[in-house]
Every structure is written in structure tokens, then in C-alpha cells.
Amino acid sequence: MTRTRRHAVAHVLTAAVLAGAAGCGGDDSDQTKDDPTAPATSASAGSSAPTSSPTDETSAATPSITPAAGIQLTEASSTIRVPVGWTRMDDLVEYASAASDRTSRNSVDLVDSGDISGGAPLDAQAQSALKNLPEGAQASRLPDVQLAGVEAFHIHYTVPGDRSEYDTFTTVRNGRNVGLDFILEKKNSETNPDLIASVLATFAWIA
User: Fold this and answer.
1) Residue 202 dihedral angles phi and psi, to the nearest 5°
2) What is residue 188's DSSP assignment?
3) pTM listed for this prediction
């Protein structure tokens, strides 16, 4: 397993612990044994706080963005396409799937689990995620996006000494916590937003 993939898995799994510790859990009829909130990452708390209040903006493709046309990742209630040439990675948990490029240093995870937030507002979930990033993380909450018509918060962060940058998108719909986690190389920071937008443009609800 690559370093990047190990980080991604920690990103997905730690949230379940954080949610339980926060006392926000409610009944979950689907997957009570392993339910994360996508944006929370390492057990080490970061020092970042939200920036100014986010404003809604759509994730639909702009005229300059071509929707991704690679393989499809599908989970219980959601689906995306990834960039052409990316390949599916081994599934490590039953509620998430991922794909990466040939270098394995650029990847995206689609996480779709039962919601254990107890109905917490999206803003509260975003604040919790920001408080539980890796130690030293430099993070900001960017304007919210729409995932096929549903508002989702967006957190971008970097970690000193790490060659990657991280973008997480999370929402709750019909009792499911759904998120996209991008891990992309910093050296491509100028084009990474377009890559992210190309994937968000393909997001769809299937249930």
C-alpha cells in the first residue's frame, strides 16, 4: 500500500472515532460498525479555523471544464467518474472506493456511509473536521459546493513536509454521509482545481 493510500484510509476511518467522542451519534440503520464523517483525518488536532462564512457555489462544469471520462466509482447512494487513465485501487473498507493515476500520488476516494452525526448541521461538521486535521495542518474552509443539488462543505489543507495537498467535500443526504477526498501533488497546484472540478461535474445520486 502506498503512503498516499495509507493516509487516505486514516482520513476515512478516524472520523468514526471523532464522531463517537463528540457524542453526536444517533441511530444508524445501515452500517453502525464503521461509519465515518469524511473530512476528519489524523487523530492529531490541527490549529486551523474556518475562514469567512462560505457561500454556495455550484460544482457543475464550467465552459472551461470537461467532465472526467474515466472509470466509474459507485457506492450505496452516489457515483463519480475519475480522470481518464486512472485505475481503481483495492477496496479497504466496504463503504468507500478509490482510484489513482499511474504514479499513485494523485487519488480520489468516494466515501458513502451511514450518517452518525446525529443530525448535526453541516457547519458544525465542518468545524469539527477542521479541529481534527493532522498536527500542523494549514487549512481553510472554502466556499460550499453543490453535489448534484445538495450543499457540501469544502476543506483544503496541506501538511508541512508533505508533497500532497488535500481537498475534502462532505455532505449528508437521506441518512448517509457522503464525501470525496482528493489527494493531489502540490507541484500541480495550478491545475489541481480543474481536475477536482472535472470529477465533481460527474457526481450523481443513484438512490
Assistant:
1) -100, -5
2) G
3) 0.74
- Encode burial over 44-55: b for 16+ CB neighbours within 10 A, e otherwise: eebebebeeebe
Tell me the residue length of the chain.
207
Section 170-184 average pLDDT: 96
Cell digits for 109? 476516494
Domains and CATH numbers, the chain: 3-205 (3.40.1000.10)
Q: Which amino acid is at 206?
A: I
From residue 7, give the alpha-carbon distance in Å to each of 130, 168, 175, 185, 191.
17, 13, 26, 14, 22
What are 94-109's pLDDT values in tens digits? 999 999 999 999 999 9
Give the whole-angstrom CA distance, residue 29 versus residue 135: 34
Residue 77 has pLDDT above 90, yes or no: yes
Compute the distance between CA of residue 185 and CA of residue 73 in angstroms, rounded to an integer. 21
| 41 pLDDT higher than 90 | no
Q: Which residue pairs from 3-6 have beta carbons closer than 8 angstroms and sit at least 24 positions apart in sequence?
A: 4/100, 4/104, 4/105, 4/107, 4/164, 4/183, 5/89, 5/92, 5/98, 5/100, 5/104, 5/107
Q: Are 179 and 122 in contact (CB under 8 A)?
A: no
